[in-house]
Amino acid sequence: MIVMKFGGTSTQDAPAIANVVEIIKAHLHQKPIVVVSAIAQATNMLEKIGKFAADKNDREARETLTQLFSRHFTIIDQLIRHITRNRNLRSVLDAMREEIETIIKGVTILRELTPRTLDTLYSYGELLSSRIVSVALQDHGIQSEWIDTKDFMFTDENFNRATPYLDIIEEKLKSNLLHLVNNGVVPVTQGFIGITLSGRRTTMGRESSDYSAAIIGAALDVDDIQIWTDVDGVLTADPAVVPDAKKVKTLSFKEAYELSYFGAKVLHPNTMLPAIEKSIPIHIYNSRRPQSTGTLVTAALPSTSGVLKSIAYKRNITLISISPQKRIGQYIFWEHIQNVFTKHGITILASVTAEYGYSIAAEEKQTTQALLQDLNDVGIVSINEKKCIISVLGSSITQNPGVLNRIFGSISDFNINMISFGASQFSINIVLEDGDALEAVREIHSELFGEVFTDDIFEVLDQQKKK
Ligand code: ASP
Ligand code: MG
Question: Are residues 24 and 139 in the same domain?
Fold first, then answer.
């Protein structure tokens, strides 16, 4: 048994879904369970619909809804040839559209888009795409059943960033899904969305469909969790910034986790957590080039101690420095600061301390007025905005002599605001000016990965060889 998750670009239009059907067909012998994201941009459109409605902009809300549904109807008409199937699917969509219209009415009257309502709105993206993919499989002669996550993906009530109840999910999946798969049926279900115990739709955070796939894979102890996306796997850098980035063939769970935590978009960071627990490999494949071997994330790696594997970056970072108003015990000061960060749920990307000073790097969107107010009560705060954080990742980095020299040599022209190194064996984090982000990534990449070579770990992509 395997899980195959397809992202929004893999299902964005009729040809893309037809391609997904072919990919699933080629894996039928492995008994796939299919997890899909909403079609590209659908989640953003649903969010817009909610915001327009809350602003009493009923007309824009409806126009966006019309656009969203016309994209889905076009897909159905181009894809589903069987007349009854086409008609039935259309009426399923009509019903969903009516439900969304009712929500729009409610939000317009209340003039408020609560996290709970937003999650209900979001859920339609995945409900729509999964319905279509399931019928498309049937239309191609594959036995498929559409499965609603409301029957198994139970979460807490933390809307927009719900936490799944793994034990319940495992129990429900085993009783609801196993017999189907064993009878040759391909279940198609939704990523991203869950349900509370009292039946309200939740979501587990933007881009979390990969995580959904891993939860399902771990619950059913599958042989492989496949994440099908629009790039060849994990690369040594974002190919939009570094065109000659190489593919990284294998990564450890820990490396993949740090890489996504520090900004690589290819996998949601939580994806690794359920997979580690059951030691299930994760493959990242390109649905546009299904013949490519992708990237394997696994626990069982040959020793690659000291090898650097990739560069990630995040922009719009703020540096916050705090020093105490008066001389209090250092440990008391630390505790006060930590309490504030915990209260506000701040994800600290890097931090450094001096005897009486503490600096952290966090995403700008997390550094709210409320946070700064609370920090002001603890000490003297200074804020430095418009930074970026660049992370160089690999394993046992501290075992790689000379690596710091090479990295800092390559960016000696740039203004460095902060460095964190040594807390983890997996990353070196450097805070620079936001405007220097892309150039600095290119410089570091050319120093560390510039040479053209293919070996056990790295692969020069076919597209690049032809150049
Ligand atoms: N559709 C959701 C989003 O756009 C979840 C996902 O694609 O992973 O965030
Ligand atoms: Mg994604």
Answer: yes
